[in-house]
Amino acid sequence: MTRPSWAPEGIDLDRPSASRVYDYFVGGMHNFEIDRVLAQQIAAFTPNIAETMRANRELLRRCVRFLAETGIDQFLDIGSGIPTVGNVHEVAHAVDPSARVVYVDIDPVAVAHSSAILDGDPNTAVIHADAAEPARILADPQVRALIDFEKPVAVLLLGVLHFVADEADPAGCVAVLRDAVAPGSYLAITHATADGQPAEVLEAQKLSGRTSTEIVLRTHDEIAAYFDGWSLVEPGLVHLPLWRPENPSDVGENAWESGAYGGVARKI
Ligand SMILES: C[S@@+](CC[C@H](N)C(=O)[O-])C[C@H]1O[C@@H](n2cnc3c(N)ncnc32)[C@H](O)[C@@H]1O
Question: What is the spatial distance between Cα 265 and Cα 268, in angstroms, rounded to a whole number?
Answer without folding.
Answer: 9
